[in-house]
Amino acid sequence: MSNDLVTVAIMFPASWDHRPAEALAADVARLKAISPRIEVVDERYSDPDELRLRRGQDPAADLRREAAPLTAAQREVLGRAEVILAQDLPFDVRDLAPRLRWVQGVGAGISQLESAGLPDETVRLTSAAGVNSVAIAEFVLARMLQLFKRLPEIDALQRDRTWQPTYGRQLAGRSITVVGLGAIGRRVAVLSRALGMQVHAVRQSARTGDLDPDVDRLFGPDDLLSAVSGADVVVAAVPESEQTRDLFDAKVFATMPAGGVFINVGRGSAVNEDDLVAALEDGHLRGAALDVVKQEPLQPGSPLWDAPNLWVSPHSAAAPDEHWRNVFDLFAGNLERYLAGAALVNQIAQRR
User: Fold this and answer.
1) Whether pLDDT at 313 is above 60
2) Predicted pLDDT of residue 58
3) Catalytic entry in 30, 296, 325, 337
4) Which GO molecular function annotations are given, in alphabetical order (predicted)?
5) What angle do CA 23, 27, 32 make, to 5 degrees?
6) Does residue 352 belong to any structural domain of this protein?
């Protein structure tokens, strides 16, 4: 590559990073230290939450008129940026950023960046898949233990000052099916095995019967119902796509054994929420936990709030401090690769 100045723009929403200012300053200094060619500018851009969600779920809608208006400073930075670290970008980013060559997302989901036409022939797109895998997998285990050990009931008895022995069930020897064997799903599989569980998984690129070192049995996507049919726990960790929209519906929940547990830490769009509520209300499922929902924030009138044995958390499975440390670790490593003309980690293939 040439010795020209490389302008790196930090544009992810400032409100997402709750660390002290010194932490970001240290990250910026680290990026600058990679090469004297690097110039780092800090100019944030953020779509409204509802628009961001719709960009991921409703690609057919004409949303451009709802995009956040750009300031003169944002336009100036976009005009000279070669590399951008972002969660959202304007729909017409390719017109606004003629020098742009690479966008690094700050999360595993990049559908809102894809809706801006990325990647294309000249601009590479990389996700931050995996940066939250440890924290989210630990969260899954916490929810499983909460439900199988009946911790909410035990806590309620303490609040009522009631001494009533309440016994749970052990996880060892039970079966779990992880749907989506990316970084998060794989970590869930590894930790579940450590607890002595029988681990099955569904992977998009697999064929049923393929081997994987981290699971006991692997299924292809066409055999989802077979994969969940004997599972005490089903964990959804799938990305957002047309194929995964409403993937977990009444048929899937009915196929799970009576008393099963469902946990979603992937994408809210993957679950038919009405069907899940029905499966909980009729008692077929023992419980469920959702860290993601279709509409965030969850509206006060949503039936999810009152569904029996359903625990909803507001997208809280990640650990923010570790998230940003891991994001900047990934970004710094990819920036070194970019300058060297090497392949980037987590690069997204261009759609044909």
Assistant:
1) yes
2) 57
3) 296
4) NAD binding; oxidoreductase activity
5) 145
6) no
Alpha carbon distance 314, 317 (integer Å):
8
Domain of 308, in residue numbers = 133-312
Q: How confident is the model at residue 46 (pLDDT cuts 50, 70, 90)?
A: confident
- As given in the structure block, the two tokens for residue 191 are 């930790």
105: left (phi over 0), alpha (psi -120 to 50) or beta: beta
pLDDT of 76 strictly over 90:
yes
Q: Are residues 161 and 284 in the same domain?
A: yes
DSSP H or E segment with residue 10: strand 6-10
CA dist 41 → 34, 44, 213, 351 (Å) = 15, 10, 43, 30
Active site residue 22: no
Please give the pLDDT value at position 34. 98
Alpha-carbon span 332 to 26, nearest angstrom = 12
Residues 146 and 43 in one domain: no
Told to judge if 267 belongs to the known catalytic residues of this protein, a careful annotator would answer yes
Per annotation, catalytic residue among 267, 273, 286, 323: 267
What does pTM read for this prediction?
Answer: 0.89
Q: Which entry of 169, 315, 325, 337 is annotated as an active-site residue?
A: 315
Active site residue 315: yes
Q: What's the pLDDT band for 205 if we cut at 50, 70, 90?
A: very high
114-118, 234-238, 331-335: lowest mean pLDDT where? 114-118
Residue 333, number of CB atoms within 10 A of its CB = 13
